[in-house]
Amino acid sequence: MLWNTATSKGNVWRPDKRSRFYFDVATWGLAAIFGARFVIQRWLYDSDEAGSLGLAKIAMGYPLLALGLLVVAWAARCSNKRLHAVGLLAARHS
């Protein structure tokens, strides 16, 4: 929703099941990244593993966020192609 609001596409993607699937994959991907980051770093913190925690914070910081943003970009691109193919975006902009 944030991506389509930022790109002025609104909710035109909502009726299309395939577009919703793409954005579901992106949402679950980001949720998995943030969930794994929390679980692993919390476990290392509770285990008093300072060195491993520092390494985990670096490895699970920007590199994983970049991967998550690539998944979001993939979903948006696939959704845009799909919406153009079925004519939903062309109908909205005309």
Automatic annotation (TrEMBL):
Record flagged with keyword Membrane: yes
One matching Pfam family: DUF3159
Keywords: Membrane, Transmembrane, Transmembrane helix
Record field: transmembrane: 21-40, 60-76
Protein name, UniProt field: Uncharacterized protein
